[in-house]
Structure formats: C-alpha cells, structure tokens
Design goal:
WH_DNA-bd_sf; Arc Repressor Mutant, subunit A; two-stranded antiparallel ribbon; activator; DNA binding
Length: 297
Amino acid sequence: MSWPTFQQLRYLVAIADAGTFGAAADEEFVSQPALSAQIKELERKLGVTLFERSSRGALLTTQGSEVVERARIILREMNDLVGTTHYEGERLRGRIGLGVIPTLAPYVLPDVVRSVMTTHPDAELHIHELQTVHLLESLRRGVIDFGLLALPIGSEEFATEAIGLDNFVLAMSESHPLAKAKSPVKLDVLRDERVILLEEGHCLRDQVTHVCQLAFSEPSEVQATSMATLAQMVAAGLGVTLLPECAEKIEAGPGRGIVTRKFVGVPPNRTVGLVWRKSSPYSQAFTELAELLAPTK
C-alpha cells in the first residue's frame, strides 16, 4: 500500500482552507504546479477525486471532505507529537500559535506576550486574532496551541484557566448629561439609554446584551464592527456602551471625547482566561502561565 505523505496532507488542508490552489500555494511557500502535482499524487494513492476544479476555485468532493477532516486530525496529532520535543521541563521552544479575541488583543496581549517571552525565551509566538468560535475551531484543528478569550466557553472539550476579571464601565460622550457627575452610576440608568453593541460574532456583544437584560434595557440596533469603531460612535454621541476596563486607557483616553463612569456595587464583568487542548503537551506550561498572569491576591 502506498501511504500519503505528511506534506501532501498539509497541502490538502491548505487548499480546503484557502479555497484555491493558488492561495494555498502562497501560504505553503511552494509553486502552484508543485502543489497541484502533490495533490494529483495523493488522489492517485487514495483512488479518489478530492477536488472539483473550476475557474472559481477548488470545491471539495464528498469523499474529499471526509479525507480533509481525517487529515486535520492527523496533522493535529502530529503537531502535538512534535510539540513534545519543544517542551523541556518548564520551557517552551519553537513555534507556538496563540489565538486572541479582538476585544482583548490590543489591550491584554502585550502583557501575555511579555510573560511568555520572559519565561519561555526559546518560544516563537505566532499571533492569530480570531473571534471566539473561530479561535476554538483553530484550536481544535491544531492551527494554534492556546487561546486568550472570555470564559466560560460552554464546552468541556478544552482545558481552561481564568486569569482575572475584566469589569465593565459605562462609556459616553463628553456632552452626555451623565458626564457632568463624577460619582458611579446604577445599572438601571441603561433603561433610558441607547446602548450600542458590537456586531454579531463578538462574544462581548452577548455579554453586554446580558447586562442590558439584567437592567431591563433594550440594546440599540446600531452596531459597530470593532472596539475602535464602537468608541468613535460613542464619542460622536450616537449612544453609550459598556466598555471593558482593560480597553479604557486606549479607547477612552485623553482626547478621545469619551467619559467613563463605574457602576455602583459589584460591577458587571467578564472573566478572561486561557484555553488549550486537553491533549496538549504544553498543558503544564499553560497552567503555569495562567497563574503568572493572574493578579496577586
């Protein structure tokens, strides 16, 4: 029996993800003819047609889809196998993939990167900014090794470790009536406000929506594509929003036209943490990293 090569499986998955042979070749740093030849050889070995080729791209056949999913498992397991050689004692070595959700990346990522590079100087971090659903899928497929996101994730499939709470503050324009007072506000002020949300796909949207429900408030239909855009919309007076405290210095800093107020009592918040595959050879390192990142009690 003639077995597929590891490289052929990599090329197969790359085409499935990129959608075209050309884009996959660019990602794999190989010529398109060389990649196509490897796929043809793979099809010959397996005795099936994996792709329907057309001017619009490469469409997986039914059998091709099944082979791709099995190839992903093989690549992930091989990645973890190789990963065991990159972990000696308490040190990570080599390429380590980190996924970060967009509402944390600009604000928390620098501390995480600094901690990893200090404690694991031989590690080469590759950062992927991904929404939660895509982050978990990338983790499942072995594209990344661990993630930084908001917990819980609603799944027992992965190992998680909290690193801290991120409180929400009320953000408004400088011309807003509540901006005049310096004291904390009650949660029920949201009932009379137009609360702007991020667009679908961001977990922060769901968290803010939940807070609005607690305050019996109906969020606005106005949506922002990013935290930066959300802050600009608030500064323009289009509404208010709940801003994570970790983003306050950047998005509501001096000259941004935004005023923030804390909430009375226990503020609404989200839990920030790390996530990784339970089978990961780096589990101990990620647990220790989470402990390092957690605030001192």
